[in-house]
Amino acid sequence: MKLTSKASLQIQKPIEEVFEGIVNPEMMTKYFISESSGRMESGKDLIWAFPEFEARFPITEVKIVPNQSVSWVWDPETVVNIELQSQADNSTVLIVTEGGKENNEQNIDWLISNAGGWANFLASMKAYLEYGVQLRKGAYDFMRNEKPE
Length: 149
What we know:
The chain is built from three helices and seven strands; from the N terminus they run βααββββββα. The chain is α+β, with helices and mostly antiparallel strands. The chain has one domain: 2-Layer Sandwich (Alpha-D-Glucose-1,6-Bisphosphate, Chain A, domain 4), CATH 3.30.530.20. A seven-stranded antiparallel beta sheet has the order 1-7-6-5-4-3-2. A hairpin with a 5-residue loop joins β6 (78-86) and β7 (92-101).
């Protein structure tokens, strides 16, 4: 059985605004990454940076279905998929899954950490899109000397 992390949250914004918040690097830098080599588009490979790490992270095999889904590959066994679901009240439910890793002790630690990481991603995105609040700013400064796993 492969391990898969999952998190979901409802954002009180129309699906088009939430989708733009994911694919637009200017918006993503307000709640998730510190920089991107470009806008997320199908077939485009990107490099992302995070404020708490010096390393750069390749994003490959990007697949976009406007206002429906965004997916990418972090590494050969780790695929992220973000599904967007429009609601009757003009809000949007986001469902994030990330997985594909083998079931072993090291990857179980990854799974636990990632579930919290995606919950934070969603909460930070919600705060930014609904209220303009940047929850991530300064939140992980303590990690700057740590190496990502």
